[in-house]
Structure formats: structure tokens, C-alpha cells
Amino acid sequence: MMMYRSHHPTTASLRREVRLRRYRQLLLLNAKLADPTNPLTKYTEHHFQEMYRLSKESFHELLSIIEGDLDRLDNRGRPLPASYQLLLALHFYCTGSYQKEVGEQHGLEVSQPTVCRTIHRVSEALAQRYSQFVVFPSTTQASEIHERLLLSNMPPKHEAEGCSDIMAGADTFS
User: Which InterPro entries match (predicted)?
Assistant: First the structure.
């Protein structure tokens, strides 16, 4: 009669395997590897500006202004860093794409509801500071701008093709 060896692992070998796996996971979590999906490092300045309509420098300035509003106080779930929140919102603003597609950009695999909340959070942070970003001209500045527009590159009435409903003339704007 032939004896078969048991292929079942012993308790000690199972414990050793669990410890080894935990150690490997810890190493991976603590590794400071360059993130290949991070748009700030992945894209050139030109490509970044095409995608987000801001230079990397302007992005960092804007982030420093609103970062406090984007950071979450609790770490429930998997909170997105403020930089990724701003990137998601900017990408949405620039493309007007579906939220689900925006969430799948850069390998983040962010759900549509998370993208929606993120866009809302970033929009609120920007709206609270609109006076820092939007400046309306005074009445005298507005009239100067108006005059410059009238004098610059305004086609005569007969050259404006396809504008049959719009009267192009100096008296129209007065």
C-alpha cells in the first residue's frame, strides 16, 4: 500500500504566509513611488494646460487658495486629496463631459456620486471667493472698453454675413 503525503498546509506555515502577505502589503502602502497616474507628473506643461485650461503654476496657486475647503476632517472611506478634487472639477468644467467619464480619468475609478459631490464642493469653494477671481469694470472703464470694441475689427454692416438678425452699427450699441 502506497502512502500519500497530505497536501494540506500546517497551521504554522499558514501563519507564516499570512505574516508575509501583511508585510508585503505594508511595504506597498508605505512606498513613496511616483504615481504614474498623477496628471501633475504625468503630463507636460503644454498637455496639462490643454486638458485643464490652467498652467501647473496657476493650478497650484488656485489649489493653495481653496485647499482648506476641500480637505475632509474625517478619513471615512477613501477621501480624495484636494489636488485630485480640483483636477476632477476642472476637467468637468473644461469638457462638460459626463461625471462618470470624468471619474474614470487618470485611473482613479471615482464613482459618479463622488464626482458630483466633488464638483459641488469645488464649485462652492470657488463661489465663496468669486470676488478674488471676477472683477467687473467701473462705468468709465466699461465705456472705454465699449469704444475700443466699436473701433476694433468690427466689420461693416454689409460684410457681416450670417448675421441678418443683428444690426451692426455704431448706433446699435449706444
Answer: HARBI1_animal
Is 98 within 8 Å of 71 (Cβ atoms)?
no
* CA atoms of 84 and 118, how far apart (whole Å): 9
CB atoms within 10 A of CB 72: 13
Residue whose C-alpha is closest to residue 66's, from 129, 119, 133 = 129
| Other CB atoms within 10 A of residue 14 CB | 11
Q: Which residues contact 146 (CB under 8 A, 6 or more apart)?
A: 173
Q: Which bin fits 3, alpha (ψ -120 to 50), beta or left (φ > 0)?
A: beta
Q: What is the pTM of this model?
A: 0.59
Q: In this structure, how many other beta carbons lie within 10 angstroms of the beta carbon of residue 118?
A: 23
State the CB neighbour count (10 A cutoff) for residue 90. 20
For the chain, 174 residues long, the average pLDDT of each consecutive 10-residue run is 61 82 64 58 88 92 92 72 90 85 73 89 93 86 86 60 49 47
